[in-house]
Amino acid sequence: LKSASVSDLSLFFSPFVALLLDIMIVAGLQKLAKRKGPYDVTPGLLDYLTMDTYAFPAGHASRAAMLSKFFLNHLVLAIPLRILLVLWALCVGFSRVMIGRHHITDVLSGFVFGYLQFRLVELIWMSSNTCQMLISIW
């Protein structure tokens, strides 16, 4: 990262902070709601390690929505790539319904939470100077 430009740093750190924020918010909401998925699947060790034991809201959907919205706003992409990015986020979310881990409302709420988290990160967008300071601390 030492050779990265200042603008590259802000494009790296802001989504990184957003992903950490998403993990904490979704895990907290899942612990509060304690809604099980449509099938009574006993969580495995990996599910416990990734804090994916409850269904509401769908964390995969929230992260896919947040990242796709971030890339759509901050990268210059051709129209076909923009469409593929949105389709990717939709496929990620709805694949969770298809494998029986989430209800459709879990995924839809995950999309909404992902968008809201994107808006929150946009409000606290890290300036290039802030990113440089964080890099220098590491």
Gyration radius from CA atoms, angstroms: 17 Å
The number of E-state strands comes to: 0
Shape: globular
For the record, give the distance between the C-alpha atoms at the N and C termini, rounded to a whole number: 11 Å
Structure characterization notes:
- This protein has one domain (1-137).
- It is an all-alpha fold.
- 72% of the residues lie in helices and 0% in strands.
Which key phrases capture this entry?
138 residues, mainly alpha, 6 helices, transmembrane helix, sphingosine-1-phosphate phosphatase activity, PAP2/HPO_sf, transmembrane, PAP2/HPO
Secondary structure blueprint with pairings:
Elements lengths: L5 H28 L11 H5 L9 H16 L4 H20 L5 H20 L4 H10 L1
GO molecular function: sphingosine-1-phosphate phosphatase activity
Pfam families: PAP2
Keywords: Membrane, Transmembrane, Transmembrane helix
Q: Outline of this structure?
A:
Helices cover about 70% and strands about 0% of the residues. The protein has six helices and no strands.
